[in-house]
Amino acid sequence: MTEQHSVPKLVAVLGANGRMGAEAVKAVDAAPDMKLVAALGRGDSLEQLAASGAQYVVDLTVPESTEANVRFAVEHAIHTVVGTTGWDEGRLSDLESLLAAHPGTGVLIAPNFALGSVLASAFAAKASKYFESVEIIELHHPDKVDAPSGTAVRTAQLIAAERAAAQVPQSPDATTSERAGARGCEVDGVRVHSVRLRGLVAHQEVLLGGPGEQLTLRHDSFDRASFMPGVLLGVRNVAAHPGLTVGLDGYLDLGL
Amino acid sequence: MTEQHSVPKLVAVLGANGRMGAEAVKAVDAAPDMKLVAALGRGDSLEQLAASGAQYVVDLTVPESTEANVRFAVEHAIHTVVGTTGWDEGRLSDLESLLAAHPGTGVLIAPNFALGSVLASAFAAKASKYFESVEIIELHHPDKVDAPSGTAVRTAQLIAAERAAAQVPQSPDATTSERAGARGCEVDGVRVHSVRLRGLVAHQEVLLGGPGEQLTLRHDSFDRASFMPGVLLGVRNVAAHPGLTVGLDGYLDLGL
Amino acid sequence: MTEQHSVPKLVAVLGANGRMGAEAVKAVDAAPDMKLVAALGRGDSLEQLAASGAQYVVDLTVPESTEANVRFAVEHAIHTVVGTTGWDEGRLSDLESLLAAHPGTGVLIAPNFALGSVLASAFAAKASKYFESVEIIELHHPDKVDAPSGTAVRTAQLIAAERAAAQVPQSPDATTSERAGARGCEVDGVRVHSVRLRGLVAHQEVLLGGPGEQLTLRHDSFDRASFMPGVLLGVRNVAAHPGLTVGLDGYLDLGL
Amino acid sequence: MTEQHSVPKLVAVLGANGRMGAEAVKAVDAAPDMKLVAALGRGDSLEQLAASGAQYVVDLTVPESTEANVRFAVEHAIHTVVGTTGWDEGRLSDLESLLAAHPGTGVLIAPNFALGSVLASAFAAKASKYFESVEIIELHHPDKVDAPSGTAVRTAQLIAAERAAAQVPQSPDATTSERAGARGCEVDGVRVHSVRLRGLVAHQEVLLGGPGEQLTLRHDSFDRASFMPGVLLGVRNVAAHPGLTVGLDGYLDLGL
Question: How would CATH label the architecture of A4-109+225-251?
Answer without folding.
Answer: 3-Layer(aba) Sandwich (3.40)
